[in-house]
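Methods — Computational structure assignment.
A single polypeptide chain was analysed. Its primary sequence is given first, followed by the predicted tertiary structure written as structure tokens.
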Amino acid sequence: MMEETIKKLRGNIQFDQILLKNFINLTAEEKECVRRWRNHLEVRKWMYNDHEIRPEEHEAFIKSLKDSRKDFYYLVFHEEKPIGVLTFTRLDLRNRNAYFGLYADPEEKVPGAGLILEKTAIKLAFEILKLHTLKLEVIEDNLRAINLYRNAGFKEEGRLKEFVFKDGTWKDVIVMGMINPYEKP
């Protein structure tokens, strides 16, 4: 069962109006689009690693994902238009948990893209992968993201004190999580 799930995650996943295109399956143009978005100041300022990603670094990262059994990155299309990136990392199929991250296209600013990405992550985690818990980490002053996650039902579970150095100061990282709402107790 685990091998089938890994194979599914390495492919592209389609449901409703959504296509999750795995980074390892992206065209050269799509890879460059993702790199451009990731390097956009509005995206990278919220990343732990906020330097500008060079093309060869981006390519090496994508190649490293080909054999990964724990980290899966997707370019998300909604109604055939790319709207953002969704990541599932630290996937543990035995204990049925993972971390996720997202960022919307910072160039087009599609209304509601963050909500679509978040709902897609929840559907993939709980309805498709049947995970028990989904976690995320968010830098303490990213209030927009924190509110998005809270509104979806994520709860603060802890803090990583002074975990990242940003803007000349140490910042906490908030750990949030959600237990599968579809599971019967």
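Note: Helices lie at 2-10, 28-39, 41-44, 55-65, 113-128, 143-152.
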